[in-house]
Write a structure and sequence with these properties.
CATH architecture: Orthogonal Bundle
CATH class: Mainly Alpha
Number of domains: 1
CATH superfamily: lambda repressor-like DNA-binding domains
Mean pLDDT: 91
Largest sheet: none
Order of helices and strands: HHHHHH
CATH topology: 434 Repressor (Amino-terminal Domain)
Number of strands: 0
Shape: globular
Length: 77
């Protein structure tokens, strides 16, 4: 079970409720939780803000750093 799913269930939220709180589409929540896709930088921020947990705790430091690095590279191009 993904950390995101553990946190969501611990807060007694459905995927739909988390989707509404984070403004991330429910199908993306499902894909992220199942590990079928990686969240965008924006999704990482929105989801972590919605559940009140630091992004690194939900998604892992490596994943968050990769997204931030990729985002900065795009900004500098």
């Amino acid at each position: 079970m993904s950390e995101l799913k553990r946190i969501r269930i611990g807060r007694e939220l459905s995927q739909i409720e988390l989707s509404r709180m984070s403004k991330v589409h429910p199908s993306r929540i499902s894909l992220i939780e199942s590990g079928s896709t990686t969240p965008t930088e924006n999704e990482i921020r929105r989801i972590s803000d919605a559940v009140g947990v630091v992004a690194e705790e939900i998604f892992g430091l490596d994943q968050v750093m990769r997204k931030l690095t990729a985002s900065r590279k795009r900004e500098n191009e």
